[in-house]
Specification:
Residues 1-32 form the signal peptide. It comes from Myceligenerans indicum. This is PKD domain-containing protein. Keywords: Signal. 11% of the residues lie in helices and 38% in strands. The chain is mainly β and 320 residues long. The chain has two domains: 3-77 and 166-317, Immunoglobulin-like (Sandwich); 94-156, no CATH class. The strands form five sheets. Strands 1, 12, 14, 15, 16, 18 and 19 form a seven-stranded mixed β-sheet that branches. The protein has a five-stranded antiparallel β-sheet with strand order 6-7-8-9-10. It starts with a helix and ends with a strand.
Length: 320
């Protein structure tokens, strides 16, 4: 990648091998044709996958987008059963004509039955509506006096209705984070003229990890009186070195420095057994987004893939 440490990696490795073997010549593989650039709409990312036959597939993924919609547009998450919670207990979102609002089951009260505006239930307000509130503990002990469990009339800014899906708000919060793939750190790197050698170590790491590329990062989204907070972080990074080797690295990996010579990376490295023309290296970061709000909580998995290409040649020993 960048800097004197990375630029001198091959020369350091060649020098070290020269001292042991005499002299080394790295045979350069043929130059690779450049890949087509594909525009990525805002809020989306490019996902690169390789099937069992080695065919590379690139697709544009937009969180929260429904099938058939134009990339870059946001859409509600559909096809999921709505779930509500009281603490950690999963409960029904409705009870008769009452709707769970994260605090209690609320049902309409006819305006003719509302108390006078000077009643304490209005809390000094002159707008909004009065609804009947049935806290969940009242349901657990139906034989008790409802007043003992907090049931009764309460003020709400609007009539009870099925509020916005908190998971949709979680997706909106994720959009605000502008998550993206990691910046790949690797030696040898993909700069022109840089070539690795078969049998020499390859070091890989997350270059300059940032909240949007590695986490943790958080954001909130609100609608209809419901606020959802989401926090995202990378749980693991899986590296595909393009020769059939796929490894999961601990943490962000260790950046290479000249002083490491031809030592193996302590946590995220590889050695190629044959030259590549070139090898495509893919780093997939697997995120977990934890969200809570609207009386609900959940997790959303995401993954982002970054790719680069490195050239690996064969070294030859010359007799002296």
């Amino acid at each position: 990648m960048r800097g004197a440490d990375v630029r001198s990696f091959v020369s350091v490795a060649v020098l070290a091998m020269s001292l042991m073997l005499g002299a080394i010549v790295v045979a350069s593989p043929a130059a690779a044709a450049g890949s087509e650039q594909q525009d990525v709409p805002p809020g989306c990312y490019k996902k690169v996958t390789t099937d069992t036959e080695g065919v590379v597939k690139t697709e544009i993924v937009c969180p929260g987008q429904l099938p058939g919609e134009e990339p870059g547009t946001t859409a509600p998450v559909s096809g999921r059963e709505r779930a509500c919670y009281h603490g950690e207990r999963k409960i029904s979102c409705t009870r008769g004509d009452a709707i769970w609002d994260g605090r209690c089951y609320v049902s309409r009260v006819p305006e003719s039955e509302w108390p006078a505006k000077d009643d304490p239930v209005w809390e000094g307000r002159d707008d909004g509506v009065i609804v009947e509130c049935l806290p969940y503990p009242c349901i657990q002990r139906p034989d008790q006096d409802n007043a003992d469990c907090g049931a009764g009339l309460v003020w709400r800014p609007g009539p009870p209705e099925q509020g916005p899906d908190p998971e949709v708000l979680a997706m909106r919060a994720i959009d605000q984070m502008q998550l993206r793939p990691i910046d790949i750190g690797i030696v040898p790197d993909d700069e022109s003229g840089k070539i690795g050698a078969v049998g020499l170590p390859v070091w890989a790491w997350v270059s300059e990890p940032a909240p949007a590329t590695y986490g943790p990062i958080s954001a909130e989204a609100s609608a209809g009186g419901v606020t959802v907070r989401a926090e995202a972080r990378v749980r693991r990074v899986v590296w595909d070195f393009g020769d059939g080797t796929v490894i999961t690295c601990d943490g962000t990996g260790t950046p290479y420095e000249d002083r490491f010579g031809i030592a193996d990376s302590p946590d995220c490295g590889h050695r190629y057994e044959k030259q590549g023309d070139p090898y495509e290296v893919a780093a997939t970061s697997y995120w977990v987004v934890e969200w809570t709000g609207g009386g609900q909580s959940g997790t959303i998995p995401l993954d982002f893939t970054a790719t680069t290409r490195i050239r690996v040649g064969e070294y030859q020993v010359l007799s002296q």
